[in-house]
Amino acid sequence: MVEPGLIRAAQSGDRDALITLLREIETHVYRTAYYILNNEQDAMDAAQEALIRIYTKIGSYEEKAQFKTWIQRIVTNICIDKFRRSKPTVSIDEHEMVFREKQNVEDEVLSAYAVQDIRNAIDKLPEHHRAVVVLRYLQDFSYNEIADSLDLPLNTVKSYLFRARQQLQTLLHDYQKGGVRG
Amino acid sequence: MTCQEVIEYMNRQLDDDLGEHEYEILMKHTRHCPDCAAMFERLKKLSEELGNLPHVMPKYSLVDAILPQLEQVVPFRQPEAASVEMSPAAAPAPQQARRAKERHQLRFRAITGIIAASVAAGLFLVSYNAGLFPSSNSFGDDNKSNSVAAADVQSDTFAAAKQFSNDGNKAEVGTESIEQDGSNETMRSAGNDDHVTTEEDLGISGMESGNSAGGSDGPASGDNSGSVPGEAPSIAGPNQGGGESFSDPNEGLVPAPLQAVSSDGSYIAKAAGYVIHVYNAGDNSDVYTSKRRNGKISTLLWSDDSKQLTYEIQLESGGMERYVIDMATLTESKAAH
Fold first, then answer.
1. What is the pLDDT of residues B69-119, one digit of tens each?
2. B311 and B336 share a domain?
3. Quick check: is B209 in a domain?
4. Is 0.90 surpassed by the pTM of this model?
5. Which of A120, B39, B118, B312 gives B299 a disulfide partner, CB atoms 3.0 to 4.6 angstroms apart?
6. Which residue of B has its CA nearest to A48?
7. Out of A30, A143, A172, closest to residue B15 by CB
8. Host domain of residue B210
9. What residues in A contact B62, CB-CB < 8 Å?
10. Which residues contact A120 (CB under 8 A, 6 or more apart)?
């Protein structure tokens, strides 16, 4: 995503390189913030804060980590810490059974979920589950890259992602059935 | 295999994490389990839609929006990342014109500048160290403290250069080059200079430190020191005390006693409090003690022929007085600025 040479130049004090680097990553940073926070203005604020933090901390980045996981760690931390809202999220119960009722599979498969429904469903997930989903689908990260970004064990990443899918699937199914819309 | 275990396989399949054998197990199960088949369909659909979420872009450039803020913030740089950029910042253009000047004056000015630069670099090291640790600890939490610390360092450096130089222009040159570099590399070279400065020929070590600490007058000093190293006026800056004063940042803020060896090596002048003692370098006997002055002695400078010692007093009012001791008559007089 970002050339190693550009990163090194930025780290050695080349301010222009650092600004160029920030321009290259700003959309990625914003996208993560947007889907974690589900709010355009908060996403702008969080992304700007993340870019400033990347600007000031560029020297502390070490090449043993992937640069893209390093920046996603910064932006997810800001989203989770700074923009933590006391809003209700669904409880993710490990033993929740998924087959709650017989459904008409045909109907459901044919109709697509509305993007807004998906965003609202993501917004209902606990923050770390939300972050895992965002990194998996908006940044195309692997399990390991997600684990590095969020500083979580690999198995935790998998279980968060799997449970988040279950939960999203249930929520979206409810929306589609004309139930509670976000 | 339970349905719950199969759901994990479904998820891993969505992430391309299933081996061929595992995939067969999954498919075999879903063929005989309508619930799991339905679930798998829904999860696949969900995953596909999550993958198709709009790749939103910010309404305006976030970087442009924060540029003014970034101006206020000093990026934290890797300590070892600054190795290459000593030379570009060195040798500012105005220096070139001065080379045409009379050789004697050139050498005098060059050395003064180098000493000033290395003194400033040394003090910069000290003050930077003193400022760096608190600011780097609070890094990222408080951006303002960084820029404040940086501002302190700059003013310290400037004050230091002014204080220990008797050539205002040169002092500024030295300060400039250090501020431009503004890097730990500058510090490191200044640190190395300490070792060099403890060598016998302070004139030559001064040259070397000048070259490595920004090289304000690199070319000029190279000309002169190369041909007549022995004649180079020996001017000891306050960092002549060597490594100790730099090992402890707090201690380093108080300059080591100012002293200077005359060009021919026959006299040693030392500042002690508000007076200057001149000793015979051979037997360490007292030659002359200056009058007591009402300010801090900031510079000791021998003339090339070792017949005159010029010193500067920094008055508490902020002014500066310059005096010259004539070694032939052992008298001193106020010098014109």
1. 888 877 666 555 444 444 444 444 444 444 444 455 555 566 666 666 666
2. yes
3. yes
4. no
5. B312
6. B62
7. A143
8. 96-256
9. 26, 29-30, 44, 47-48, 51
10. A38, A175, A181, A182
